[in-house]
Amino acid sequence: MRQPDIEIYLKDVELPAVTAWLEQAIGPCSQWQVRGQTHKCRAGDIPVTWLHKAVGRWSSLLLDSAQTPWEDDLACAKAACAALGVQVRCAPGSWNEEQGEEDADRWLKVTAEGVSEITWRTD
């Protein structure tokens, strides 16, 4: 089932590289609007939010649409890893608060070597 939005975390990558990848994967990006640490644009028709170094060396990329080229976070993470050559993390599926805090720390790590499940405490 297609996710309503996509969120991935990218390690040690800068916004110009992400912009170039989004333009190649989705379509032209509008100019980034900056509000504090948050950057927003549209890639094609998709609203995009970038939070540089949201968690340590990890930056958050949120694609706020179900109309992305990817079925879910993992598919997007794999594409980002391949295109940008960086480690990417994403949730193993949709998460809500009823699932409990322990499940909130379950993440998928995507590298050139493949995908593995990890525990990532982000707070």
Notes on the protein architecture:
This protein has 123 residues and is an alpha+beta fold. The protein has one domain. It has helices spanning 15-25, 73-84, 101-104; strands spanning 6-11, 33-35, 38-43, 46-55, 58-63, 88-90, 106-111, 114-119. An 8-stranded antiparallel sheet has the order 2-3-4-5-1-6-7-8. Strand 2 (33-35) and strand 3 form a beta hairpin.
Notable features of this structure?
single chain, 123 residues, alpha+beta, 8-stranded antiparallel β-sheet, 3 helices, 8 strands
Please compute the radius of gyration using only Cα atoms: 14 Å
Low-confidence stretches: none
Give helix and strand order, one letter per element, not per position. EHEEEEHEHEE
Return the domain count.
Answer: 1
The biggest beta sheet is recorded as:
8 strands, antiparallel
What portion of residues belong to β-strands?
A: 35-45%
> What is the overall shape?
globular
**Class per helix and strand makeup:** alpha+beta
Estimate the helix proportion, in percent: 10-25%
The overall strand count is: 8
Number of helices: 3
Strand order of the largest sheet: 2-3-4-5-1-6-7-8
